[in-house]
C-alpha cells in the first residue's frame, strides 16, 4: 500500500471542510482499525482498513450527487484498487458486490458508527454510558437520526455474520477511548 494515513487525511481535509464530517471520517477510521483485528488479519490490515474508513465519504460534502465516484476514482489513480472497491461497495446503490472482509466491515461499520454518534449526542453521559439496548431501541425509532439508512446497518451485520447487539457493542467500545476527540462525551 503506497497511500499513507497523513496523505489520506490531507486529501480528506482538502475536500471536506466541516468538522462534523471530518469527525465522522475519523470515527469510522477508529472503528475500522479495530475491525481489522476482529474481522481481518489484525495489524497487517489495520492501516488499510483505517484508510477505507477515513476516506469513504471524502467526496460527499463537495459532490454529494456524485458520491462516491470521485473518491473511488482518486483511490484508483493512487493505485489502491482494494480501497477503491471497498468504498464503492459501501454505497449500496451501485450494487458493487461485497467480496472481501474489508468490503463487508466498511458497510457494517459506517452507518452504525454515525448512528451510535447520534445516540451519544442525546445522552448526558455520551458514549461512556451508552449500551447496545439503547441503540437498538433508537434504531426502531424512524424519527431519530432519520437520515441513517437502517437497511445498511442490518445488511452490514448480516454480511459479517454477527449479531446486531454484539456489533453495536463492538462499535461503542471502539469509540469510547476517543470520546473527547470525536465529540462523543454527551450533552451537558
Account of the protein in words:
This protein is mainly α and about 190 residues long. The protein is built from ten helices and no strands.
Structure summary:
The protein is built from ten helices and no strands. It starts with a helix and ends in a 6-residue tail after the last helix.
Q: Indicate the percent of residues in helices.
A: 55-70%
Number of helices: 10
Alpha-carbon distance between the two ends: 43 Å
The radius of gyration over CA amounts to: 15 Å
What is the global morphology? globular
Give the topology, please:
Elements: H1 5-15, H2 19-39, H3 43-55, H4 69-77, H5 81-90, H6 101-121, H7 132-140, H8 150-160, H9 164-175, H10 179-182
Which keywords apply here?
188 residues, mainly alpha, 10 helices, 64% helix
